[in-house]
Amino acid sequence: MILDMKMILVIHNIRSCYNVGAILRTAEGFGVERVILSGYTPRVHDANLLPHLREKLDHEIHKTALGAEDMLDIYACDDIIVELNQLKEQGWQVVGLENNIDSDKLVRLNNKGLSERLTDRTVLVLGEEVHGIDYSLHDIIDLFVEIPMCGQKESFNVSVAAGIAMYGIMNT
Questions:
Q1: Which of 14, 81, 92, 106 is the most buried (most CB within 10 A)?
Q2: What's the whole-number average pLDDT of the chain?
Q3: What is the pLDDT at residue 102?
């Protein structure tokens, strides 16, 4: 187990407000340091939206976040590539949650050697519900983790997968 692991969570290009809210609730429960919303992910308390649209999005996110959206350090990022590179320069390791990719950087979450490949400062990147992490981010990512599947489905819902990954990474 990596003691005192610090984690930043990147929610990139996730469409569903309900998934965003559920991920925020889980992130708060695991003590995530900061959450970065990027791409077309719905923003919570987005001052750039008309008030009625902001209220609608906040309401939908709140349905599953249940207040966690107000307990976390959350900010929106316009250029996630620049942001991830800056975090790497500050000593953060960038880990992508992905499945079914062909990469020598891919490690199963239950792999015994995972703990040796992780650092105590991890940025966990979550990607789009169907297509995963945008390929433009793959070169920036230091390591990909994959959740082993036993059933016939090829993936979990992104909010469920986020919880499994946060727990698995923090408890390796």
A1: 14
A2: 94
A3: 83
Query: What superfamily in CATH does domain 6-170 come from?
Result: SPOUT methyltransferase, trefoil knot domain (3.40.1280.10)
Dig out the tokens for 98 from the structure. 């992905």
Measured from the Cβ of residue 101, the count of other Cβ atoms closer than 10 Å reads 14
Cβ atoms of 61 and 20 within 8 Å: the answer is yes
Q: Which of 45-77 are b and which e, b meaning 16 or more Cβ less than 10 Å from the residue's Cβ?
A: eeeeeeeeebeebbebbbebbeebbeebebebb
Taking only the tens place, the pLDDT of each residue in 35-94 is 999 999 999 999 999 999 999 999 999 999 999 999 999 999 999 999 999 999 999 999
Contact of 8 with 32, CB cutoff 8 Å: yes
User: CA angle, 88 as apex, 14 and 73 as ends, to 5°?
Assistant: 50
pLDDT at res. 3: 58
**Domain locations in the chain?**
6-170
